[in-house]
Every structure is written in structure tokens, then in C-alpha cells.
Amino acid sequence: MKRNVDLVVISDVHLGTYGCKAKELLRYLNSIQPETLVLNGDIIDIWQFKKSYFPKPHLKVIKKIISLATKMTDVYYITGNHDEMFRKFTDFELGKLKVCNKLCLEKDGKKTWIFHGDVFDASVQHSKWIAKLGGKGYDTLIVINNVVNWFLDKMGKEKYSFSKKIKNNVKKAVKYIGDFELTASELAIDNGYDYVICGHIHQPQIREVKNKKGSCTYLNSGDWIENLSALEYDNKEWKIFHYEDHKHLLKDDESEEFQEMNSSELMKIVTQFS
Predict the structure, then answer these.
(1) Which long-range contacts (CB under 8 A, 24 or more apart) does 152-160 make?
(2) Predicted pLDDT of residue 273
């Protein structure tokens, strides 16, 4: 039985990298029927894309998204820094699938501003090669971390996250996250938004931010590499979905016809929108 959800936001999936948890994301997407799905950047990792590595689960995620857009779901693809190539297709529409750089929505009388967030990252804007090098280093760290966690799991011990340890203990990382959240929130307050939603920093969050000019709620959808998280809006309330808290309730659904499609059949679906 699928859950009906008003609005779902996911980001930082990084399809095409070794760290991407595509199988888990597919199980989540198969469990919901959203009215609106927002893909908030870095869904496909163009920076680290290799023709030799794009396994079936990664392709199935793309097929699932297209399948949703062929039916009843409005799908917005907001571009990020790792999939910046798609920015040349801004305002492109393919049926219910729309490509954009930012999105403004109004839900229950409240204004929501959604964008990826890399605009705040100086390393991306001014030293792209450094950011790309960092991306490769992060991907390598995740691969090593996955191997370590495999052994820990076999020994019955709790999994460990190298990157979370670094983020939580390196002062510059902690400050960067805090500054990122504050900057996004203050801009949202200045522009009269009730909610501001970002991705980019792989840090799921919902927090209220106030200053002399007003207040807003800052939200971050996290990622599908380590946190395996999404934002859900339903019954006038925002919540963070954590895959690990619900995985026992999610089942593999191989009955979905799109999962058996090959690449040529996928192209047939795309041409239906033309």
C-alpha cells in the first residue's frame, strides 16, 4: 500500500557514484505516491560520471522518476553543482517534468523557496577544480567507509560514518554548516518566505530561524549516500523521512512494469512527451 504524500523533496542522490544508495531510494519511491516530487540538485553526478559505472539500480531510479511524471505527479528537477550541465535546459518541460534552477511554491497560504544551495559555496563558484577534487575524495571516502561498515555489520557491531565524524568534529565544517543555514534563512526572511529548502550540504535539518526582520523555517533534505533522508510535507506539516527508521516497512516492489524496461523502452516513454 503506497502512502499518499502532498510534497516530497529529495536531493544529493549522486547517481553514477559508488556511494549512491540507489536500491534504498528506489524502495522509498516505490512506497509513496506524491502529488509533487522536487529533485533538489545533484541527482545525477555529472562531475564523476563514468560510462563504465551506471548500474541497473541507478537506471531504475531514473525510470521510476519518469514513470511518476507520466502519471499523476508533478516533478521538478532543480539543478545543482554536480548536475550543472542541466542548467542549459532551465525552463525545459517534458510533460509533468520541469527543469529549473529554483522553485517557489505556495502551500496552505505559506510561501516556500526551494533551491540547491551551491550558490553559497565559494569553492564551487570560484575554484571549481578544487570542488571537483573534493568530490572525488568524498566518493573514495564513502567507498572505504562502505567496506569498513560491511565488516562491522558481519561482526555485529554498529556502523560508523567517517564523514559525519569529520563534519561534527572539525570546527570549520561545523561553522560552514551553521553559516550556510543562517545565510539561506536570512535571505528567505528578506524575501518574505515562510520556508526555505536546500540540499548541497548533506545535512538533514528542520529548524526555526529568527532575526530582527522576522522568522522562517529552514529545511534541508539531506542526501542518499549516508543519511538516506527526504523531506515530506503532508497535513500542513513538514517531516524528515529517515530510511533507516522505516526500512523494515518498505518492500521491494518488482511488480512495477517500469523496472523491467530496457533503455530503448525508456526512450519510447520520453518520446511520448515530445
Answers:
(1) none
(2) 42
CATH of the domain at 47: 3.60.21.10
Q: Number of structural domains, the chain?
A: 1
pLDDT for 5: 97
Instruction: Work out whether strand 205-211 and strand 195-198 pair parallel, antiparallel, or are unpaired.
Output: unpaired
Range with the lowest mean pLDDT among 104-113, 116-125, 206-215?
Answer: 116-125
| Cell output for 90 | 532551465
Residues 76 and 36: beta-carbon distance below 8 Å: yes
Angle between helices 56-70 and 263-273 in degrees, nearest 10: 30
β-bridge partners, 101: none
pLDDT at 132 over 80: no
Neighbours of 203 (CB within 10 A): 20
CB 21 within 8 A of CB 225: yes
Q: Global pTM?
A: 0.79
Question: What's the burial of 156, exposed, middle or buried (CB within 10 Å: 0-12/13-18/19+)?
Answer: exposed
Q: Residue 80: count other Cβ atoms within 10 Å of its Cβ.
A: 28
Which residue, 192, 222, 193, 187, is CA-closest to 206? 222
Q: Who wins on pLDDT, 260 or 5?
A: 5
User: Considering the chain, what is the average pLDDT of its residues?
Assistant: 81
Supply the pLDDT for residue 248.
Answer: 82
Whole-angstrom distance, CA of residue 11 vs CA of residue 38: 8
For residue 78, the enclosing domain spans: 3-273
